[in-house]
Amino acid sequence: MPYSKEERNELDFYKEFRDELRNLHLRNIKESIPNKFRNENGVLQSFEDILTGNGLEDAQVEADIYRTILSNPNLDALPESEKEEARKYYDSIRESILTKQNDKLKQYVKSEILNKTIDRGFSELIQDVPSTLPESPVDDEGNVIKNLEVKNGDIITARIEINMRVWLIENNKKRKFITKEDFFSSRYRDSQVKVLPIKIINSIDDGKIIVTESIPNVDLRKKLETIDTNNLPPYTTIDDLVNDYDYGGS
Known about the structure:
Elements: H1 5-9, H2 12-32, H3 80-97, H4 112-117, E1 155-157, E2 167-170, E3 173-176, H5 180-184, E4 193-195, H6 198-202, H7 218-224, H8 238-245
Parallel strand pairs: 1-4
Antiparallel strand pairs: 1-2, 2-3
């Protein structure tokens, strides 16, 4: 039985795992401060805010987790001679987090020089070829073999078994359910599952995987839709994937 998110957050081993990741993240932030969050090539390094998942530039730097790194909780207690210097130091950290372009960009006009500077010719053109479903197989008399026909709205699988894979045909593509259990918890659970030869299934273009509406977080659902489910370990559950993408927890 998988843990709920609330139960998981109370487990000691999970707290230790989470704190270890957070401390490593905070160490990397602290080590980047002297270089103003730039690498050796001067490129701005983007850090994630542990509390919100947004960029560090939107973080509440006065939060407890960032104290002494991005802010000084005892600033007002410092002597006046030190207070202004400390304030400038932490203000400079905040400014360093933000992307700034100090140099003016070069301007080009349409001329022979521009053509030598920028290759404006197209050597190839990528075309978006629409997906098509395989033609319906026919018997010797030319009649469509109904149990092998593929059409939009079908729920298909290669074989009925404990660890079977299930797809929905939509927009001429096959959209995979993360697991069999996820299919049976979806609104498609009462649909008839059509068993097709794996050769026919492989001939259908892949679409985005299906993440059920049971996950209320829209951003998380979009992330999960990009997963390559063909490489997941056996018996992976939707809870496993949610936990993997729930960095930081709270």
